[in-house]
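Exercise 7. Given the encoded structure of a 227-residue chain, write a plausible sequence.
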């Protein structure tokens, strides 16, 4: 924020300086000196344009993330209306899980990945059961490894330590706005968020009502303790 304020201050001061310079020339009856103005403008452009570009990128990234979370939110709201417990931003050690769904069909640890799509071609996300590829290239760091690690942390460090029970936690990675070529397995899903409700609906009930409430209660208590 300080660098942004400094950039705008420099622009404002430039305008004041130009006015002062013109008044001085008028009072001194000095001839035009375009070389000085050109040098000043060049320096200011070199200083300001990278900052403007960074601000524009930050705005585009913010809008991309906002639109992606809106798409994910619609899928999660559909699940909530079906009676599932939905939690957001579960904070771990130097990481966070974007969303967690608790239901009798299991517990799902959701990671949201937003990437800007290229203007040309037919971009897609591919999951071969092991690696996640964007336009045929591996994504680094690996969303699959991150999702698995986060789900394991949720299962061991949060649910097991607080309840003494081992709950099944499935890692899920969703890519808003992308076509996802699915080759999912029982261990992990990689999906467009629109597909999440139908995928969960196909799962059998594996938790009792009591265990579902137990997991949701302890997860809620953990989130409150962190907040």
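Solution.
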């Amino acid at each position: 924020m300080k660098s942004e304020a400094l950039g705008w201050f420099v622009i404002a001061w430039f305008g004041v300086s130009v006015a002062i310079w013109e008044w001085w020339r008028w009072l001194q009856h000095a001839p035009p000196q375009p070389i000085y103005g050109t040098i000043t403008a060049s320096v200011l452009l070199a200083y300001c344009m990278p900052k403007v570009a960074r601000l524009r990128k930050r705005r585009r990234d913010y809008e991309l993330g906002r639109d992606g979370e809106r798409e994910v939110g619609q899928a999660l709201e559909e699940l909530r209306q079906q009676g599932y417990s939905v939690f957001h931003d579960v904070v771990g050690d130097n990481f966070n899980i974007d969303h967690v769904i608790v239901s009798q069909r299991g517990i799902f640890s959701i990671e949201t990945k937003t990437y800007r799509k290229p203007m040309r071609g037919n971009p897609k996300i591919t999951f071969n059961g092991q690696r996640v590829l964007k336009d045929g290239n591996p994504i680094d760091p690996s969303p699959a490894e991150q999702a698995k690690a986060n789900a394991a942390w949720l299962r061991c460090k949060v649910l097991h330590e607080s309840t003494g029970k081992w709950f099944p936690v499935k890692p899920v990675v969703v890519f808003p706005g992308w076509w996802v070529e699915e080759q999912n397995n029982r261990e992990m899903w990689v999906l467009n968020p629109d597909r999440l409700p139908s995928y969960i609906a196909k799962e059998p009930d594996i938790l009792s009502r009591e265990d579902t409430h137990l997991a949701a209660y302890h997860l809620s208590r953990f989130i409150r303790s962190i907040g």
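Remark. Strands lie at 85-91, 96-103, 106-112, 124-127, 132-134, 137-138, 169-174, 179-181, 189-191. Students should compare their own answers with the one above.
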